[in-house]
Amino acid sequence: MYQPKQDLKQRQVIGVEALVRWQDPERGLLSPDSFIPLAEQSGLMVPLTWLVLELALAQQAKWQARGWSLNVAINIPAAFIQSEGMLEAFDRLTQHHGALLSNITLELTESVGVECLGYACHVLKALQQRGCQLSLDDFGTGYSSLSQLHRLPFNELKIDRSFVSSIDQDKDALAITASIIDLGKRLGLKIVAEGIETMAQHTLLVEAGCTVGQGHYFARPLTAADFDAWFSEYLPTAPTPQQQSMLSCCKAF
């Protein structure tokens, strides 16, 4: 599924985050909390990540064919980064789909504890050199936040929803969020807020200097087909021939 990401000031959709869900025949659509821990325990996170990446790149190619330049963000775990042959396989997959690497953001959850050491750091820098954007997800929830932000080559940080959800009710949460935004800006990073639910939260984030956001206030996670329909209605309507003629006349003056 895909959740739109918006420029908070311009209110323009600039991309999506690919979110994994499991359609269970008995229990319906399951959130990641229901199956990701099991995947981690079973050693299935790497193949699951490759599957999500494959589907997201294929969908991005379809959007590109329609003229939609959308950044696609994909969550990747530490095990994926450290897996053998990851870079070579990534190159083959992106080349197969003709992916525009500058429109791919790879999100690392800060709780995974990846350190800027050895092979993991080499892979992250190599991905960035290829044009991918690197995002530190769930910022503020793990013990290694500042260490990772300082030592790993991130382009973006995402403020965890646990802070965003209460900024319109809790002055301390707002102060922490504003401090994170200020820190990110000082480091030259793009700031993304996740879990925006209300107009008040949106307004406070804009006032604090946050540039990009996502959440149910804008749109819930959508299937590819539902996103296509939603985004088609969201896009500005092209002028009719009569309107185009009138615009041409206006330009003549």
UniProtKB/TrEMBL annotation:
Pfam family for this entry, one: EAL
Domain EAL: 1-235
Entry GO MF terms: cyclic-guanylate-specific phosphodiesterase activity
SMART domains to which the protein is assigned, alphabetical: EAL (SM00052)
SUPFAM superfamilies: EAL domain-like
Protein name: EAL domain-containing protein
Organism, scientific name: Vreelandella sulfidaeris
